[in-house]
Design brief:
Layout lengths: L2 H13 L2 H4 L7 E8 L6 H20 L7 E8 L4 H13 L5 E3 L8
Parallel strand pairs: 1-2, 1-3
């Protein structure tokens, strides 16, 4: 299986639970957070992950969303830094009130 197919499969698997539990978040949209290494040394992973996540959200929204609610993707660029990834995760949870977080691109371990 190619890297692209693996990424798409993982993205689909991460978004699938939304179909069964999206009623927990109120409002017209379901916020999904994503922490990717869009820039920096792991950008070869993060840039395609971001594009794939945006593609998946656009595709789901074009088909009516999840349970009639549109998805909103909020992407944070960790640049491969574990400290930034932790900070962004807290921000996505506490300030953005996201339903789920996808990522980060790397574990931060060499």
């Amino acid at each position: 299986m190619s890297l692209k197919k693996c990424i798409i499969a993982l993205m689909c698997a991460s978004l699938l639970p939304l179909a069964f539990s999206c009623k927990k978040q109120s409002g017209e949209t379901i916020k999904i957070g994503a922490i990717f290494s869009v820039t920096g040394p792991a950008s070869f992973l993060g840039a395609p992950e971001e594009k794939t996540a945006r593609m998946m959200v656009d595709e789901i929204n074009s088909k009516g969303g999840v349970d009639g609610k549109m998805l909103k993707l909020i992407v944070k660029d960790s640049t491969g830094s574990p400290e930034k990834a932790i900070s962004f995760a807290k921000q996505l949870i506490e300030e953005e009130k996201v339903f789920a977080i996808i990522g980060p691109s790397t574990s931060g371990k060499p």
